[in-house]
Amino acid sequence: MQKRSSFLAGLAGLLAAATALPAFANGEVNLYSSRHYDTDERLYSDFTAATGITVNRVEGKENELIERLKAEGANSPADVFITVDAGRIWSAQQDGLFQPIQSEVLNAAIPAELREPEGHWYAFSMRARVIYYDTTKVNEPPKTYEELADPKWKGKVCVRSATNIYQLSLLAAIIETKGEEAAKSWAQGLKDNLVREPEGGDTDQIKLVAAGGCEIALANSYYWGRALRKGEEWAVEAKDRIGVVFPNQEDRGTHVNISGAGVAANAPNKDNAIKFLEYLASESAQKYFADGNDEYPVVAGVTTDSPIQQLGTFKSEPVNVAVYGKNQAKAQEIWNAVGFK
Ligand SMILES: [Fe+2]
Q1: Ligand 1 centre and the CA of 14: distance in Å?
Q2: What are the residues whose beta carbons fall under 8 Å from the beta carbon of 41, sequence distance 6 or more?
Q3: Ligand 1 geometric centre to CA of 268 (Å)
Q4: Do the domains at 2-126+257-308 and 128-255+321-337 have one common CATH topology?
Q5: How far apart are CA 151 and CA 157, in angstroms?
Q6: How far does the centroid of ligand 1 lie from the alpha carbon of residue 119, in Å?
Q7: CA of 87 relative to ligand 1 center, distance in Å
Q8: 41 CA to middle of ligand 1, Å?
Q9: Alpha carbon 335 to chain centroid distance?
Q10: 17 φ/ψ angles, rounded to the nearest 5 degrees
Q11: CA 174 to ligand 1 centroid distance, Å
Q12: Cα(99)–Cα(266) distance, rounded to whole angstroms?
């Protein structure tokens, strides 16, 4: 089924190229995106082939694009803003960078916890924050986020800095489900278990496990998928050494975050922007969108070719991801209070 639909999509692309459709016939859509993956070319060209709408792209780092949108204000040509992490997207929403839309297509395709309740933004792929462990040293790895704070793992855990949005969003979710007090003692326990002061990004923590410098790490799922897909030497060597646990499968589910998008506040091509978002929820677009960064599709039943699929399916936490933004300041306060760098 999957092969067939990508074949058809390919055929559509070829036909469009062969007949040289005037791409501007149905106008354009301007994307501001912090994505830049190999699969994006097909993602965008398929949309143009299907609708005749030209896709113009401005690519940049997450926070640079946010600053640019703010600076452009009412004169911004942006129709759609695509970026990662619900905490960051929520902040952009608070800055007035999105407008709410109504779409039956999006409401039907995207689970409720993965979209902003008023339609300001939607998740189009997701990543899980998972536990990596050294199978040569650990027989019974932690099964939950809570266990990462258990003193039995003292001096064995590595995690990136708490100033990073992924760690803020994770703690924000814990505040929501377990309350501030429990969140604070968890943050303290995690800090007490660190093998070293936080340094580097998520991949560096997984690499440290691979190199035997840390027994347990916490990092997003796609970093491992990406390293395996690219056949990076350290990952190929460590493939059997590194184990992966989806935390909290027996209770609330694993913490997930998103790549998301919404219609920009001053979109000059609003109708095309909505069409583009609805396209992102289609099966073929879901596959490209998720595969580009080894993420998981958000639409039920869609799978990808990423090595991350070999880890199997998992249950994700049912908390609405918008909560990561709402609790972000409190999360930062707690990380600071326990002295987590
Ligand atoms: Fe990342």
Answers
A1: 33
A2: none
A3: 30
A4: yes
A5: 11
A6: 24
A7: 13
A8: 20
A9: 22
A10: -65, -40
A11: 20
A12: 8
Question: Rounded CA gap, 309 and 48, in Å?
Answer: 29
pLDDT tens digits, 242-277: 999 999 999 999 999 999 999 999 999 999 999 999
Give the orientation angle of helix 62-72 with respect to helix 86-94, to 10 degrees: 10
What's the CA-to-centroid distance between 307 and ligand 1, angstroms? Answer: 17
The owner of tokens 């994770």 is 170
CA of 8 to the centre of ligand 1 (A): 32
Cβ atoms within 10 A of the Cβ of 57, count? 15
The top-level CATH class assigned to 2-126+257-308 is alpha beta
Encode pLDDT of 78-115 as tens digits. 999 999 999 999 999 999 999 999 999 999 999 999 99
The three-class DSSP label of residue 28 is strand
Q: Name the residue ranges covered by the structural domains of the chain.
A: 2-126+257-308, 128-255+321-337
pTM for the model stands at 0.88
The CATH-assigned architecture of domain 128-255+321-337 is 3-Layer(aba) Sandwich (3.40)
